[in-house]
Amino acid sequence: MFNKVLIANRGEIAIRIMRACRELGVRTVAVYSEADKNAQHTQLADEAVFIGNAPPKESYLNADVLIQSALDSQADAVHPGYGFLSENASFAAGVESAGLTFIGPSADSIRAMGDKAESKILMKKSGVPTVPGYEGLETFADFKNAAKDIGYPVLVKAAAGGGGKGMRVVNEESELKEAMELARSEAQNAFGDERLLVEKYIADAHHVEIQVFGDKHGNLVHLFERECSAQRRHQKIIEESPSPLLTPELRAQMGQAAINAAKAINYHNAGTVEFILDSSPSSPLRHGSGQAFILHPSSFYFLEMNTRLQVEHPVTELVTGLDLVHWQMRVAAGEKFPFAQNDLHQHGHAIECRVYAEDPANGFLPSVGRLLQFIPPQGPGIRVDSGFAAGDEVTHHYDPLLAKLIVHAGSRAEAIRRMKTALDDFIVHGVITNIDYMRAALETDDFKQGNVSTRWVETKFGEWTPPQPDLRSLIAAALADVVFVGGRAQPAVSNETDPFNPWKGTGNYRN
Amino acid sequence: MKTTFDTQSIELNPSGENYAAILDGKTVSVHIVRAANGRMDLLIDGQRVIAHVSSDMARRWVTVNGRTILLTKTSGAKQGIRRDHAGGLIAPMPGLIRSVAVGVGDVVKKGQTLLTMEAMKMEIRIQALKDGKVSALHVAQGQTVEREQILAEVE
User: Fold this and answer.
1) Residue by residue, what is the 3-state secondary structure of A417-475?
2) A222 to chain B nearest CA, in Å?
3) CA-wise closest residue to B67 among A354, A448, A439
4) Which end of chain B, N or C, is less packed with Cβ atoms under 10 Å?
5) What are the sequence ranges of the domains in chain B?
6) Mean pLDDT value across chain A
7) What residues contact residue A160 under an 8 Å CB cut-off, 6+ apart?
8) Cβ distance B44 to B30 under 8 Å?
9) Beta-carbon separation of A508 and B83 below 8 A
10) Domain residue spans in chain A?
11) CATH architecture under which domain B2-76 falls
């Protein structure tokens, strides 16, 4: 095992990785930007290295500075977390050529999956089902013929892309030219690469991904699925395992397809193969055995592979009982993964809600400010991965993820109830959050029945309005002024020494 | 003591060991079981209620029964902003002043847009909270402002 690991990330995932390091007796080095000098992850590490200004380009995305920091602090490995440089092949290569271990897959594996068009060609060769479509086309006439052949609606998207950028739905031929121009310029701006591919647009899609895990000795297994269809603007908000849609047969098929995908790029460490699952009325899923299906042998298609740890990895940890970050470190250090596919099982049901500092009533705009109260829920089967505490500032520099709330219970219905209770108990003051929004989503019949497709939030759940003040909240607000600041002060609240008292935080408040 | 949050007014009067809260002509009895660090355990007409409340200048964050409400205090003896800026208009987040629509001395109506800000790629209108006269203007077009910086005052 390593002696010391540098964590090239921030926030909740840096803290999650540090916890695993401490449990394994490994010392930790945090890195921090100007904006994060007092952040939780900076505070919790054994050592912390300053790496630059707040904008990610000048700190968390600066590969040279990160590698130099690892060398200077005498770390022997680097964990990239997710986002930032986690899927940057030259960073992984740079870490290795500096004589350090990259806790993740090889640079070659990352590179192979980094390009959507090339990875799709590779997947087709390896027998992994892909969305019907064409890549490598150049002229408009080629695209027009391809789209006609596939059948409208089609999707044009950036070959180098990800995250929903450079992607356009085209409903009919007359829209194709403009959609291609828009997608091209977006792709050029976001990825410096204007190549596009065209494929069948699956309107009623579920996003189901398979966790894979491999060691450096050729062992490769899957750790079942995560259903991640509840999304807003292509960003996941609620994830769960098992998926309410999968039969044991489909699960086994998708698991095998994911293993084939990973094998094709000699994968080791933790990775995720994302699929879209066609849940439209013509899909074989709606016809039981699949005998009604003619066009394509399966109803799931390879979307992309994430060559890193995922945000939603705790869902898999809770149902499999495995600590993925422990195993990432152990296989990176050369250990064999001791479990065969038959040793692995899903136990109960896990759901994750991503608590964001954003305003669902206002286009999901990020909300910034100081956390006046931050009280995560507790109880049986409740896990909270967070990078914040009361008194911390939520800034506009980074992702507005405040916490991941994950619950585990015996059944899906129980897990939904547990999650609603946990959301009720989660107190966040100082920034607007999506807590109430997610609870309302969990309470819908569509969610309870597992009928949430990737467009559900936009098309079916748009009419949500935030809770309105009632008698009790108005009384509490009015009473708080009296109780907590002067007036008829109660002895119990004259807590003058508490620096985090939300009633003392804002400078010249007292009058 | 009367307090107004946004458009709803509530009156709170000491009554023996308890308080009497009057809202929309209805009176309820409020007993404080305990209160510390932004959490209040209350008996409202005999019903147990746990409330978390935080103060953020004129704003009040209130969570009761898992529902979080953001209220803005618009009047009341214990105004959450400095007394000398009781009619002050503050920047809700850091940003840039895009335009200033009024001058000192202008008579304004409640709800009238006094200036616009740009923050996090969205336009924010700063509007008069009451009818009155612009007594001070602390910012100019193009200026960068901090969160909670006082932008203008209306008397």
Assistant:
1) HHHHHHHHHCEEECCCCCHHHHHHHHCCHHHHCCCCCCCHHHHCCCCCCCCCCCHHHHH
2) 38
3) A439
4) C
5) 2-76, 83-154
6) 90
7) A114, A115, A116, A117, A187, A191, A192, A193, A195
8) yes
9) no
10) 4-103, 132-200, 203-347, 354-467, 469-511
11) 2-Layer Sandwich (3.30)
CA distances from A483 to A29, A313, B4 (A): 44, 44, 17
Token pair listed for A53? 């200004």
A354-467 shares the fold of A4-103:
no
Average pLDDT over residues A69-83: 97
- Asked if the Cβ–Cβ distance from B67 to A467 is below 8 Å, we say yes
Set A195, A308, A354, A383: catalytic member: A308
Three-state DSSP at A9 gives coil
**Is B47 buried (19+), middle (13-18) or exposed (0-12) by CB count in 10 A?**
exposed
**A296-337, pLDDT tens digit by residue?**
445 899 999 999 999 999 999 999 999 999 999 999 999 999
CATH T-level assignment (fold) for domain B83-154: OB fold (Dihydrolipoamide Acetyltransferase, E2P) (2.40.50)
User: A239, A231 in Cβ contact below 8 A?
Assistant: no
Select from A472, A481, A506 the Cβ nearest to the Cβ of B57.
A506
Mutation target vs A (from B54, B71, B117; most A CBs, 10 A cutoff): B54
- Cβ separation of B23 and A479 shorter than 8 Å? no
DSSP code string of A365-390: EE--EE-SEEE---STTEEEEES--T
Interface confidence (ipTM) of the complex: 0.83
pLDDT in tens, A404-438: 999 999 999 999 999 999 999 999 999 999 999 99
What's the predicted TM-score (pTM) here?
0.82
Shortest distance between the Cα of A155 and any Cα of chain B, in A, equals 28
Contact call for A484 and B38, based on CB within 8 A: yes
The answer regarding whether domain A132-200 maps to CATH 3.30.1490.20 reads: yes
Q: Mean pLDDT throughout A107-136?
A: 92
Q: Which CATH superfamily is domain A354-467 in?
A: ATP-grasp fold, B domain (3.30.470.20)
Residues A4-23: tens digit of each pLDDT:
999 999 999 999 999 999 99
Q: What residue of B is the nearest CA neighbor of A420? A: B66
Q: Do B93 and A368 touch (CB under 8 A)?
A: yes
